[in-house]
Amino acid sequence: MKRHGVVVYLKSSFIFTVFISAMLILGGSPSWAAPKGSPWNEDYFPNVKLTDQDGKSFRFYDDLIKDKVVAINFIYTHCGDTCPAETASLRQVQRLLGDRVGKDIFFYSISIDPEHDTPKVLKEYADKFRINSGWLFLTGSKEDTTLIRKKLGLYRDGVEANKLSEHSTSFMIGNERTGQWMKRSPFDEPKTLAWLMGYSLSNIKPSRKPNQVNYSEAKQLPNMTKGEDLYRFRCASCHSLGKEDGLGPGLQGVAKVREKAWLRRWIKEPDKLLAEKDPIAIDLYNRYNKILMPNLRLNDADVEALIDYIEANGNPAQ
Amino acid sequence: MYIMNHFSATDSAKIKRRDKTSKLRTLSYNPLKLSSLTIAIAALSGFFVSSSPVQAKFNIPTDSTASPLCISGQPRCAAPFTAKMLMFEEFGTQAMPNESNVATLTSGMPGVADCQSTPVGTALDTFLNEPIHPFPTRKANDILPNAWADKIKKDCGLLPTNLSGVLEGRPGGEQFAHQRWDEFMPQAYFQSAMTGARINGGLRDKYQRHGYSIGEFGPGGLYHLDNNSTKGTEVKIHPNLPAQDPHSVWTFDGTLPPKLLMARYGEAVLFRHYNALPIDVSANNGFGTHTISTHEHNGHDGAENDGYAHAYFYPGQFYDYHWPMILAGHDSINKGATDLRTGAPDGYGGITPVPGDWRETMSTHWFHDHMLDFTAQNVYKGNAAMMNYYSAVDRGREPKDMNEASGNSSVGYGCHYANPNNANLCFPSGSGMDWGNRDYDVNLLVADKAWDNSGQLKFNIFNTDGFLGDRITVNWEYKPYLDVRTRRYRFRILNGSVSRYYKIAIVDESGNKIPYHMIANDGNIMQYAVPFPNAASAEGALPEQGIAERYDIVVDFKNFTGKKLYFVNLLEHENGLGPKRVVPLVDVLSGKYKADGINGDPVVGKFLEFRVKGCGSKGTDACTDLSMNPADYVEGNKGDKQMIPVNRPTTQELQAAVNRTFEFGRSNGTDAKPWAIKTDGGIGLNMDPHRLSAAPTLPDAPDGLGKVEIWHIKLGGGGWSHPVHVHFEEGQILYRGGKTPTPWEKYARKDVYRIGPLADSTSSVDMAIRFREFAGTYMEHCHNTQHEDKTMLLRWDIQHPGETIAVPTPMPEWDGVTYDVSTTLPTYKIGDLKAKAAFVLPK
């Protein structure tokens, strides 16, 4: 009746040849009625009005979360480092979940800077990241969005009130119907997040068994270098190691094309290069949808390790 | 936050629920307009977000309203020290049956009426009373279907019709097969079901070792029960509070009293844990999840039995936990089992010798849920039990007379204080039985709780800074009292809270501090007893006690006939981040400190009352007390008597040690906010069940001692407190805050290492730890379980020498468990080389 297999581990799943477990394909939904007695219902969540990037209005509870599996994070579009990285990372999760996003799973990025982030600005932002359907970028009044943050446990009085850059980058995934909510970081493994949203939280039956291989076929543990580790958790959401472009350029041969000294600086402090109007930096910025390369706060040793890794692994086979 | 006190539940209930959403919303960010009506409306739902212009200083209970002591429909209000404290009820182990004798038994766990229900109590008791079947297996029993397969498929729609799930939810195959199964074949077993609150049916009466006939549990004793039974005990936090709903409290058997496992070294135990929780995950009154994993904190057990956070199991399934009950050093020290100090009570006054290092003897444990993301909610909801280990040195048997104490009549009863060749330390316990007397050896589970206006337990799942309750309970009762005799008692105090620390002082009615001794730290008997009050501990109270820490103390009530004594909590919290300060005892007792929730933390103050009685039929005579006097075992005592000496690693071992650094604090990179653990100077990471952050190696030779590693546990700043727990083996603290640790840590073995801003915690701990006997996947985490669930948890594996393929990562589903391949950090083998180079060994 049971199998003890290992799902094949695809290293490239961190790039765009995505690994989609059959688990994540929508099966049937349970037939029982919505629960009684959960305090995390319409009495708890505010039903405030929010507007998406297309100017459409929604009620937070009725239209956006009721009976849905959702991921909700808080962003502001002119945020330099955190939000683009966060958005890029969630975008990977969205891809892993495939066409279920927009059907029974929804992503919401709510602006914490509504004065600046009008629907038009949010539209540009979403376009920049080439976001698919099922992911809304929302804005509303400061009071309303703050209330939502508080209700989701993503706002601490006295800490986050005044400074946008101090906002919590954690986000909530949850299922309103079952009343289950979890706080997660956008830097969790996309595969794990996809499993949680697609199977665990969804409370569904699988439509078929996932593919198995035996443990004896399991690959030896990748003995990961510091460079690979950094690449996976900090770079892979935007850059492939091959030629293929993601949100940013593919990295194949980048160490040959660019001067080492420039590359080091670009990885370490892209914000400064852009501020200095470095021509290559400006060119990249313009070519890649004006998505800011984030300053990842890496130290010199990190940068060297990353460059070594990209040099050694940036080839067409990858 | 205590605005509901004057407003009765009946009044609130009259208000139409429909109105409240809009009003609450409008008003909660216009706080100046708050009327009593809207406050009541907000309170009715139990949770609201405080947005008042001046932030309330004490957010207790976390983001919610005060737990009422007067509930409509109850005869009286719940007042402090009016409820009799519940004594733990034994699970009771039984001898393993012959496999052939149970082969014909085919009954399964009783079914459920619908997706939201738990089994009927009487049917469940009948089933749990049957001998264990199907017979336990080394690899998971994933041949048979889920006991509730039909329900899960047809009514609840969680399995397709062509699948039937599995009966055992343990991950299948070799990876989670019981290690050394044949060698440590279970000799005793017990089975219980995690299920919704219900009335105790007396299921465990016959398994109580005292049989309600011996000592203080017998007729006329302090802890005797009418009809020799716990039958009829309801799950109530106080007799004047309502019974808990099956969706509010989930616990072992679904019943109170809280449960205790009494186990002996050398007698391998199998715990068959059935999951009898609702199939519908939403049938939980707002908190807790129905998938569970059971961690025996801090057992020397194979990883498959350690309750890995991603080896959880589903309703309708069981999981067989195999606890071999061996001492660390089993393979390398005292292999021939010739040292009588390394042994277990044999039941007849003798000692059954076992291999291993007697200096690794453990005593006071607990086991609890460890479900990924939901540990805090599930443990708070009731998934926690205590476990006492019994051994030659800690037998739970004091002598009847001085002849026994000398060891002349029975080797196992002879006391170390009477003759240093005797193993038994003769801690306060009782003498009616061969081992495990609990007459004067009392388990205390201290935890803060909160409940809604109807008296049902509540929890805020969104505030992940930590959750604080506003009511303190001992053994699930709100501020109870306990009758005691005029003699020495041992108390095994467990902090079973979610986010709250305690600092416990003991006083008499006039507020005088009472002398007492600490004898064990984290369940491990210390080298020397530490007297309290002492100069190193503020207010003469016990040190800060973080979540999951256990302190065993000995208190002598000899001079207090007819008096009342109190445990007093002095540690103030404002929110769940960690303790704020130690409140002066004098301010607490004088009432200068107002523990009303507005001016002070409502959980500061007296919380357990002892009513002291003498012995004899009238309760006025002096008691005989031949238990060990801990004063004879303090550091510097004449003759240097020691309880259990710490087996310190050699300088050579420390020099050769792999060093690892775990920093608990803010992450770096762009994500400055999320809290995380940085391993070996790497980036801050959250829990990923696939990722090995560290992998110590077993000894090269089968009988090797086990390599020592040095782990540096650091606070990443920010004023938070973290009680960091490392699974599997105890560590020895080399430095606390860079300095020599205090006596209660210097002479102890620990499994929880507090770091934080307060005096007893400090910002770093450097400790030495060994790995031996078992391999596989273990964890390290912050035991403020709200921190653990959201970020501060990591996986580490013990690997065999030369091992290159890590244990794969179990992915539990309704239909059974598949595996994913695991990943590693770059430093998982080598650790932190910089820290190693910089570390100065203690002299």
TrEMBL record, chain A:
Pfam family membership, one: Cytochrom_C
Residue ranges annotated for the Thioredoxin domain, each copy included: 39-192
Domain Cytochrome c: 222-314
Record-linked InterPro entries: Cyt_c-like_dom (IPR009056), Cyt_c-like_dom_sf (IPR036909), SCO1/SenC (IPR003782), Thioredoxin-like_sf (IPR036249), Thioredoxin_domain (IPR013766)
SS bonds (residue pairs): C79-C83
Keyword Disulfide bond: yes
TM region(s), chain numbering: none
Keywords: Copper, Disulfide bond, Heme, Iron, Metal-binding
GO MF assignments: electron transfer activity; heme binding; metal ion binding
Keyword Iron tagged: yes
Sites where the protein binds Cu cation: C79, C83
Family named by the database record: Belongs to the SCO1/2 family.
PANTHER family: AT19154P, ELECTRON TRANSPORT PROTIN SCO1/SENC FAMILY MEMBER
Protein name as catalogued: SCO1/SenC family protein
Organism of derivation: Methyloglobulus morosus KoM1
Species classification: Bacteria, Pseudomonadati, Pseudomonadota, Gammaproteobacteria, Methylococcales
Automatic annotation (TrEMBL), chain B:
Keywords associated with the record: Oxidoreductase
Domain called Plastocyanin-like: residue spans: 706-797
Enzyme class: oxidoreductase
SUPFAM superfamilies: Cupredoxins
InterPro entries linked: Cu-oxidase_C, Cu-oxidase_fam, Cupredoxin
EC numbers, comma separated: 1.3.3.5
One of the record's GO molecular function terms: bilirubin oxidase activity
PANTHER family named in the record: BILIRUBIN OXIDASE, CUPREDOXIN SUPERFAMILY PROTEIN
Protein name: Bilirubin oxidase
Organism: Methyloglobulus morosus KoM1
Lineage, broadest ranks: Bacteria, Pseudomonadati, Pseudomonadota, Gammaproteobacteria, Methylococcales
